[in-house]
Input
Amino acid sequence: MELEFMTIAHWDESLWNRIEPVYREAFPSGAKPKGILRGMLERGIACIHAGLYDNEVVAMAVSGIEGAAADKRLIIDYLAVRKETRGQGYGTQFLGMVCDWAQKEHHVRGIIIEVEAGETEAHVERIHFWERCGFILTAYVHQYIWVPEPYQAMLLPLDQNISVQDNGQSLFRYINSFHKKAYRQR
Output
């Protein structure tokens, strides 16, 4: 069940039409609109990744690079696996491909993801997925002014010298910088 991995840095409408159902299924509310995503790619601040099995999109991600040259981090803005294929190892395999791409193409030293800071079964399952993949959950809970749910950051160190020196608040500097660029008009 080896996935084919694709990354695009320029908008491709036909590929987006194949990816969008996975994106919308996983993020029915709170997802960035297509126009924002397209603008992010056109401005060179994000990439869209797809994992295909038997020519069908089973996984997708939106990511961007943040930080100075010697301190780059990959921000995974969205990552989703098509619902009917979850639990079959595609998410772990796809995440590994995204990590490999980030290291080889951009020499990132760590990967950051933000997760909802809830205690529902769904929230706990998501956090456990990321922890099984090597991510470390931080204690700091960030409350955005424009969304109701609080978030926590998780870090996957790709360099032995990378760690969180505080409760996770420093990771939100990378995340917030990425979000500001995403919503900035040109």
In short: The chain has a mean pLDDT of 92. The first strand starts at residue 4 and ends at 8. The longest helix spans residues 90-106. Strands lie at 4-8, 47-53, 56-66, 73-81, 110-116, 136-137, 151-157.
